[in-house]
Amino acid sequence: MGENPAKNHYAQLNQGEENEMEIFGYKTHSCRKALCIAGYILSCGALLLLFYWKPEWDVWANCIRCSLEEADVVLLRTTDEFRIYSRKNVSWISVSALIKSRSDYPATAEEDSVFSKAIMKPSLQVKSIQVQKIRYVWNIYAKQFQKVGALEDHHTCSAIHAKFGSGLTCNEQNVRRVICGPNTIDVPVIPIWKLLIKEVLNPFYVFQLFSVCLWFAEDYMEYATAIIVMSLLSIFLTVYDLRQVRHLTFFHKEDLFLMSGRGFQELESHHLVPGDMLVLKEGKTLLPCDAILISGQCIVNESMLTGESIPVTKTHLPQADNFKPWRMHCAEDYKKHVLFCGTEVMQTKADDRGVVKAVVLRTGFSTAKGDLVRSILYPKPMNFKLYRDALRFLMCLIAFAAIGMIYTVCVFAINGEEAGEVVKKALDVITIAVPPALPAALTTGIIYTQRRLKKKGIFCISPQRINMCGQLNLICFDKTGTLTEDGLDLWGLLPSERNCFQDIHSFSSDCSLPWGPVFRAMVVCHSLIVWEGKIQGDPLDVKMFEATNWVIDDSSGHQIEGQGSTHATVVRPGPKASRAPVKGVIIIHQFPFSSALQRMSVIAQEIDGEQQVFTKGAPEIIAILCRPETVPSNFESKLLLYTAKGFRVIGLACKSLQPGKQSTNLTREEVESDLTFLGLLIMENRLKRETRPVLEELSAARIRSVMVTGDNIQTAVTVAKNAGMISPTNRVILVEANKIPGSFSASLTWKPLEESKSEDYGSLEDDCQTERRIRLALGSGQYHFAMCGKSYQIVAQHFRPLLPKLLLNGTVFARMSPGQKSSLVEEFQKLDYFVGMCGDGANDCGALKVAHAGISLSEQEASVASPFTSRTSSIACVPELIREGRAALVTSFCMFKYMALYSTIQYLGVLLLYWQLNSFGNYQFLFQDLAITTVIGVTMSFTGAYPKLVPYRPPSQLISPPLLLSVVLNILFSLSMQIFGFVVVQEQPWYSKSDIHSACPSVNNHMENSSSISSPGLHGMRDGADGQTDNGYKSYENTTVWLLSTINCLIVALVFSKGKPFRQPIYTNYMFILVLIGQLGICLFLVFADIDDLYSRMDLVCTPTTWRISMVIMLAVTLAVSFLVEEAVIENRPLWLLLKKTFRYHSKSHYKRLQRALEQDSAWPPLNETFFSDSVAISVEGNMGGHSNPTFDSSEDAL
């Protein structure tokens, strides 16, 4: 890079990662800074507050542009559509005390390390910034900021063993310690006062502060105090919510003592640095960092990260001598060699080298656990329409208030009021137009829903997503453990000898399985452990092993020929086991199950016998790894027969190892080749009891269900049919994509998948009659696509334009890797679906995080893998969450509409009274805001969700025609009633502008010696003798308008409190009904009471009974009209659908547009055809492991 500052001024941080940012370099300018300080003082801190809200303005005002190398301040901007700015100061770390001579310089140990490239000479300082808890240092050579706290990715497997296998020197450790910082994930619980200040500096609360100051200036003491209490309540609710989430998901610091460094000194875990070598001792250990296992084997519990409490086997990193970086060499299986921070090491098994060693890979917030904590501390902003519309709504209210301000200034100025009084009254209009209880009201709705979900065993760590659940229209389900039972039952074993299948062995019969290669495979080919006296591991492995009646002897080390003493698992015949010619079998080495490879292998040895390899996995994969002459010719038809019946089928294979060969030095590729096919293990995977009813309920509600599984495609299709995802009358089209050998192109084939028949097990038919029958089904849109992960990947690369069309009717996605699951969810989101993901295991973590609503079925209270966690391990939580989400969304709309109307009703009433230089009194404002609106705001949200899911969703935006029309019409009804009351009261024969007692002579006689006559103005006076007060607000217009507007607020609350179809009927919300009845009783009492002290306190005047009855009639008419319009027009779904049809309005959602286009395409879907791609493929490797949260935006226009 040249020396052009404009060129070096900008760079990208974390390029290609989820938290990618743009970084700009700036240098503080002393003259500019002095001017800004003067501005802060002159504006009484207003400019400082503005800079707090807009950090980019702060940097632009105080600094000048420069290259990142010279910068002392950097400006960061996110690369998503929100483009959020943040400011960071550059700090300097000195390492001069650690590097006293040239020999101490870390570059001697590792020239390509970022640590050596960051130290500036001769000052021996490191330039750094800290962003979202991660430290970045300036690389002098690359001229960019680089992340520290992690081992560089470029190391090869052999380099990691060679460079770090014996640890770092003390000096290297010290330098890294200073540059990286401590290995801790400290999330200090922020003091309440700090959180409060941060919350108070929110623009809305700053506006509240301005309002309160104005009210104190106008002597509205009680009202101002009430608003302070309400705002503090709202702030405390938000702070409480924030701290609850932190307590739920953050983890405590581990202070373990571990061995590290060349000298094997003991040190506390917070001193660890990337590159350190630790020795893992036997017994339970909680890992304080991410580490690469370089010798031995570990059994870990990763439930903290994945929500799945099955023990996971970790094996050491192979010493592969190639030039590929270690992660690329291990591909998707690199996690099998990595021990993650926060996970529990349950067991360690040393190999012939004597100890279990691991190299520290990442420390602190760079670890997997740190990453999850950061994702909660710094969540992605959600671009949900409701929140955007809420801001627009506030902008409209402010614009509305501006019109009122102009009107106020004109009225008061024409009448010759003092300038100070005019300004106060004009500013008052803004505080009336923007409702003070809005934040509290919106916070309570979500909190109540969260509590209801918690009672139902659904925990939420991201409350903002609850509203989003109300919009879900597509749910992806994992199969095993989600739709089907976790535990599989052994159904049968189909052994193979001399490339022919033998008679099937049924496990339900009493006869035991004879000793042989298949039996040996079942005994050793697993990753089970004995923990606290119980066999633990994958449920499939447990069932398989228990069927043999053997036991695991995990107690001692065993001598293995040529390998010294090693801690290995030994399996022996149990008391109930059939006779075997061996004392036991030792499991020497494991290659754990890999989702990407779809198999696992072990190297085992009979006691005093030869070493053998046993492999089990997906039958299609196992068959490819076996010698062709050992695979039966009818393998495919037999596999299809059992998978079509919905069985889970596992392939078994084995081979003997050459004597004298060191098993630990063998690579997985060497082990898993030239195998002998042993047979098929057939397992019954029963549907959970709740699965079918739940999927039927979702289908009835027009919510699509999609299966995303790692299982066989035929099994998945059968389970989908049994579960009701695919109707018996619907056709399934198998989409198969293959790369053409020797070229860069690919082929895509469409085959109808027919039902299994007794004579012909699941063959793919292609005769004319079948094709005609299928075409009939396809013509009516009754078809589903099924494809495997490999085909999905090829379609995404070579047939990109076809992918959306396939997803539109894609129901079964089998043999999907974790990365492909995440990618699929993102592709559905691109079609404008609101996607939910329900899964139970580690393989689903990425998809759970990417989906709009990820639901983890886990026994833990909260799994950080997903926003929602259900304690019940069935999918019954999915419709429950959608119901509550819809109810919460409708509640939010109700609250917005009510708040808009309440503030508008009050605003219109005040503007009417301003015409006569009058206004509402303090207690009148207080009664409306506190006794009416706040209580309604709190209790309106109590209404629960309606138990039935209807086949349409609530609107996703406030700016939808029905909602806008509802608000506008109710504003007009309120305005009409208030103007009518205001005008008609002046026409009454008893009305007097100067004498407020003219309507009630008895009151006049009683009061004429105790109170002076009110003048129509805002300047009241107090009579000290009697204590009677006249604030100047009392008038017939004030009494009429205030009583009408107050009871109108109750009418609006009742009319807007929606019940069916998304919430329970309003009468089920007993608290709300009691509140409304109580408030109506008090209001009617105020209308008809003649209590002088009460009227005087409330600034009301006595009116004739006929006028009071007239006001009640006006309110009754308003209620009737408002209720009729809401029910007959606003809530009339058929009417709106007719209007849509009349005006030819179509949804703008991508998937809806695509549906309409495909309905017109007679050639879609193709049948028994093969397409060929162009030679150029689109690379989608970067998308296949997508863990990024999408922007939650959609152009869905649902009614």
UniProtKB/TrEMBL annotation:
SUPFAM superfamilies: Calcium ATPase, transduction domain A, Calcium ATPase, transmembrane domain M, HAD-like, Metal cation-transporting ATPase, ATP-binding domain N. SMART domains: Cation_ATPase_N. GO terms for biological process: intracellular calcium ion homeostasis. Belongs to the cation transport ATPase (P-type) (TC 3.A.3) family. Type V subfamily. It is found in: Membrane. GO terms for cellular component: endoplasmic reticulum membrane; late endosome membrane. PANTHER family: CATION-TRANSPORTING ATPASE 13A4-RELATED, CATION-TRANSPORTING ATPASE-RELATED. It is a multi-pass membrane protein. The chain crosses the membrane at residues 34-53, 223-242, 390-414, 426-448, 899-917, 923-942, 963-985, 1039-1057, 1069-1089, 1109-1130. CDD domains: P-type_ATPase_cation. It comes from Otus sunia. Residues 147-220 form the Cation-transporting P-type ATPase N-terminal domain. Its main location: membrane. Keywords: ATP-binding, Magnesium, Membrane, Metal-binding, Nucleotide-binding, Translocase, Transmembrane, Transmembrane helix. This is Cation-transporting ATPase. Its EC number is 7.2.2.-.
